[in-house]
């Protein structure tokens, strides 16, 4: 999986041959090319290589120009094709090797072209690819079970939300609904929150001191609350919960009844979250919004307020979940009083194969009936076969400990790197595990561009921040390489 900020040749072939007529010819030739010659940009190139390289760049550039007639471009992309990946590296059309600290925007946790995953895709594709949700498959059932088990295993002390035992004699049993993407997971979560809100309002279970109106109009309990700098996706419901004019303005009006307040600000919660609110969505670590970690007090207060007004607490762990912070879920770092009712996730679950999911508490699950929600592709056996492998790796204690250790190492290296510029060009270094950010005083786009020239791929986040979300298998040596390149760029850029 690559982020859409990079061009892949397959996208262009598809644009040229939209009916699946794309010739499958070139792949083998590319692979041979990489094996015979790779310019590791990280070690820099010789002058004859540079000449050859600029000729290749020119021809690739005109090829991309030709394809641009066919592609609807909603992303600004560099002028090369990415053609192959291996672990933490990507190889472009001139054979250059890039160190990938974007991981397709926090997706490729187990690295590009992971051999086990390739094998699983190959085997499963010969067995069963798709059957629809009209039937059970073992792959989907097993993935749901592993997700629930890993969730409970690393947080056994919880008594709230998805950890709440609903029946005195049985274990808590959160349940999983599979989707195709993050935004689709959030759309489902909004629907489940609305249905739950309707049911408890109808049953007269909402405290109505402030809004007596609910006694006569239970359908008014449909409002959703989210937080400034949160990002929840681009489909219209998720977009409505993403309070960023850049994303929302071209498409308003969006779904009604959405309120926002400041992240990590507890005083505003009572004003905006009330008996008409059916759901509150928050990222425990905001990714797109600039790598902002929720404080324990803030999440405790949000949970408390949700309980007071009968609203569902949704954690969007699409970017920060599934081992990225060094915990299986980012919220596992918080005390039980912060537990959510719903967790949405996607990105790394398929290591690039599109799959997402919604994990709901048993209490919410009891309000969702057959026919209430659906999807054609969500939970197909191919995606779930990959998901089973991904979860089996990401849920291992040793894996999580390594992410924590390497995350601390990255943070320490970024702090050292930033310290000469702190307070001047750089404002802050922050993050948890392998989701880290450097906030600059002004836009760091030129730094990201220069890094790309030196074959380090980075992605920006808002608030003038560069985001560091490498594959979770990144090594300390690769972190050193990335920091060395950035050190060179900072010296070039900031010393005069
Ligand atoms: C926190 C968060 N939520 C939702 C989304 C949307 O996910 P998708 O792009 O898979 O629809 C993203 C994507 O970056 C995200 O970071």
Please specify the SSE layout and strand pairing.
Elements: E1 7-8, H1 9-16, H2 26-36, E2 39-40, H3 47-67, E3 81-86, E4 89-92, E5 96-100, H4 103-106, H5 115-127, H6 138-153, E6 175-179, H7 182-202, H8 213-216, E7 223-227, H9 236-240, H10 245-248, E8 258-261, H11 269-272, E9 277-282, E10 285-286, E11 292-293, H12 296-309, E12 312-316, E13 342-345, E14 356-360, H13 362-365, H14 381-394, H15 397-418, E15 426-432, E16 435-440, H16 445-453, E17 456-457, E18 459-461, E19 465-468, H17 476-494
The structure holds pyridoxal-5'-phosphate (PLP).
Residues 105, 181-183, 186, 231-233, 283, 287-288, 316, 318-319, 346 line the site of pyridoxal-5'-phosphate.
Keywords: Amino-acid biosynthesis, Aminotransferase, Pyridoxal phosphate, Transferase
Pfam families: Aminotran_3
Family: Belongs to the class-III pyridoxal-phosphate-dependent aminotransferase family.
Brief write-up:
With 496 residues, the chain is of the alpha/beta class.
Could you explain the architecture of this structure?
With 496 residues, the protein is of the alpha/beta class. It has two domains: 7-114 and 399-494, Aspartate Aminotransferase, domain 1; 122-395, 3-Layer(aba) Sandwich (Aspartate Aminotransferase, domain 2), CATH 3.40.640. It has helices at residues 9-16, 26-36, 47-67, 103-106, 115-127, 138-153, 182-202, 213-216, 236-240, 245-248, 269-272, 296-309, 362-365, 381-394, 397-418, 445-453, 476-494; strands at 7-8, 39-40, 81-86, 89-92, 96-100, 175-179, 223-227, 258-261, 277-282, 285-286, 292-293, 312-316, 342-345, 356-360, 426-432, 435-440, 456-457, 459-461, 465-468. The strands form four sheets. A seven-stranded mixed β-sheet has the order 6-14-13-12-9-7-8, with helices on both faces. Strands 1, 2, 3, 4, 5 and 17 form a six-stranded mixed β-sheet that branches. Strand 10 (285-286) and strand 11 form a beta hairpin. The chain starts with 6 loop residues before the first strand and ends with a helix. Pyridoxal-5'-phosphate is lined by residues 105, 181-183, 186, 231-233, 283, 287-288, 316, 318-319, 346. Residues 105, 181-183, 186, 231-233, 283, 287-288, 316, 318-319, 346 line the site of pyridoxal-5'-phosphate.
